[in-house]
Structures are given as structure tokens and as C-alpha cells.
Amino acid sequence: MQPEKYKIEEYNQRTIADHKRRLEFISSEVKDAERIINMLVDFQVAIPSWALGTGGTRFGRFSGGGEPRSLEEKIEDIGILHALNRSSAAISLHIPWDIPGNASHIKAVAAQNGLKFDAMNSNTFQDQPGQELSYKYGSMQHVNKAVRKQAVDHNIEVIKYGIELGSESLTVWLSDGSCFPGQLNFRKAFENTLESLQEVYTAMPDNWKMFVEYKAFEPNFYSMTVGDWGQSLLYANKLGKKAYTLVDLGHHLPNANIEQIVALLLMEGKLGGFHFNDSTYGDEDLTVGSIRPYQLFLIFNELVDGMDAKGMSHTTDLGWMIDASHNVKDPLEDLLQSVEAIMLSYAQALTVDRKKLTEAQDCNDVVVAQEILQNAFRTDLRPLVAEARLRAGGALKPVDLFRQENIRQQLIKNRGSKTVSTGL
Ligand SMILES: [Mn+2]
């Protein structure tokens, strides 16, 4: 199903003259264009196995058809994305929605598509068919030790799957919390959760990382037991050096200053992973950069600044993943747009003149500081992002090629129009 190499090359040839003209202009405007292009080529964003179908709503789901019916087909979908943009070289698996029954076969399918396995994701926010004890009142926080043990055992099972696939990290997102005052003893809930996480932490190989993801509300609406970055950081610090906080852009209270959170977590050496999406109100999981592109840029500005201050590798020292869902767009087109928005914000952050910004900050020149950031944000760097794709063998305009090649129609022909992918 992947567009063939020669088709991508033919397509690129048709618009290469326009592209080269734009590239030449921007390369003369921006310092270090060549360095930025090379960094963009290296930067990869993982796609979660649950983002390839329609979902993310508790109301109607409207399948666009051709949704993947199996883990193999999900990998195939990400292979299509990666062939088009050369920036989606990893898949993040969710257990039990996508159990790799035959690990060596699944690894081979991934390798054929040029993909690696990013963080593994456990699920104790739903009861599975045949599950002995219920998570209705929480999992790792539960007042009953047997429920906590079931949640711990599940996470250890997820680690085992991950080891077989070559993954090196586990993301734990807990929906634990309470819906009403008095329902929960906050301290006991925290201590039970910490004890459970410690058992999982101990079961992780030494080269693994644990990402503790927080969320302000939903599905619990009065308290969340890992509700914000402070709580996540508490767990991560108590667990040890393999534990980190994971920031999901949609998991904050409205108007939270996420860029400041990112800066301080990096300063503490405790930012481990990142989930990209966008939202207006809460956790709508919309296309990255579709609502607040300036905020996304400001976050990347802190990411680049904070990683450079610690001598971290942009490509390997943080786990980058999209965590979005789609109900009105084609999921693959949506993901192509999301990756493009991430690359663009990253590129803009790389152009910020940090020396001048520091000078402006040191003499309290608020106006110049703002000018420096907004100048970077308002410079159109799309030709640099397109050039990085071109050099890596991708398409100059991935969404356009996806449509011209009728890829969705081919998927519908192969898989049917009534398929539903597993996920939320
Ligand atoms: Mn997330």
C-alpha cells in the first residue's frame, strides 16, 4: 500500500522548481539553514497504534472506511505515513488493544515498514473481558490490594511484550482518582499508587525508562491521583532515576503555562516523554498545531533551550509521540498534518537567536525579547521542512500526494468500508 519510490520522485519533480525557489529565499534569510535541515531529517515522532482509526469521542464514531483491522495493518498505515514524510519511524503500542501475539513476526513487519517500537502503554482504565477484578474505583490506588496487584501484574506483562519487541520505555497513565468529595483518602491513594508503581519500576530492565503521565481531570472529575506535573514529579523522584514525567499537551487545566512546566522539568532532568495534540477546552486531542500554533512554538522553544542546556540529544533523549484522535478527518491525513506542525515548530525553535534573547533578558528588554520570539514564529520555514523530507526520500507535500495516489480509496478496497479500529 505504500506509495512506490518512483511515484514519490515523480510527484516531487512536478513541483521541485517552485520548492527550490522558496528554499533559496529562506536559506538566505535564516542563519544555519543547512544545519536545521539536517536536524529535521533526524527528528522522528512516534505514532500510537490507537490513532489510526476514528475515535476520541464518547458520542458517535464515523468511520471513513479502510481502518486497520489488525496490528499488522496499523503498522502498514504508519509505514505509509513514514514513506510520505520520513519523520514517523516509530510505533507506540497499547496493551491490550494491540497485543503482539507473535513478536518476531510483528518485529519483521515493522522492520519492513522502517519502524521501531517506541514506548509501551499499559491500560488499567478499562475492564477487559474476562478480567477478574474491576477498576471501577481505580487501579494502582485501589483500597483492595488484590486490585492493585492485578494492575501491577498487567504493567509487568506490558514490559515483557516490550522487551520482545525492542521497546525501551513504559508509559503509565492512570485514570485513578475520585468523582466526589469524601470518596477517597488522598494520602492513602497516593501511597498505594506509589507502592504499585515501585513494584512495576523494579520489574523494568535497567536500560528502560518509566514515563508517569499526568492528567488534570477526566474520567475522574473531583480528584486525579496523578493530576498534575507536581504529583507526577513527586512519583518520579521517589521512584528513582529511571522514572520521568510525561507531558501530554491536553492534560492541563485551561490556560496552563505548559512551556514553563517543560522548562522546569528539563532543569530537574525529569522530563522523559511528550505527547502532542491540540485543544481549545480540555483534552480534545485535536490535530497538533491546529488551535494554538504559537503555544506549540513556545513549548518547542523551551524544549530546545532546556535540552541544549543539559547537552541532551533532541532525537533520542526524549520520547516524542503524537497522542491525538480524529472524528471528522481522515486519520492518516490528520497525522500528516500533526507531524508537519511539530517539524515546523521545532524548526522555528532552532532559529531563535539565543544569544540575543539572553542579552535582552539580562537587561530587561521586554520588547526585544518578544521581537526575537515572534520573528522566529512568523518566519515561514515550510521550505526547510519540505527540503528535509525531500532529502530523506519523502514527499514535498505529503497530504497532497496521499490524495493524488488515492491511498484511502485503496485501503477501503483492500480492507472494506465498515472496518473499525481498536482504541478509544
Ligand atoms: Mn497521552
Give an account of the 3D structure:
The protein is of the alpha/beta class and 424 residues long. It has one domain (43-352): TIM Barrel, CATH 3.20.20.150. Helices cover 49% and strands 9% of the residues. It has 15 helices and eleven strands. Helix 2 runs antiparallel to helix 10 and helix 11 packs antiparallel against helix 12. The two termini are 25 Å apart. The model has no long low-confidence stretch (mean pLDDT 96). Bound molecules: manganese (II) ion. Manganese (II) ion binds at residues 213, 248, 275, 323.
Summarize it.
The protein has 424 residues and is of the alpha/beta class. It has 15 helices and 11 strands.
Notable characteristics:
424 residues; 11 strands; alpha/beta; globular; 15 helices; 6-stranded parallel beta sheet; TIM Barrel; binds manganese (II) ion; 3-stranded parallel beta sheet
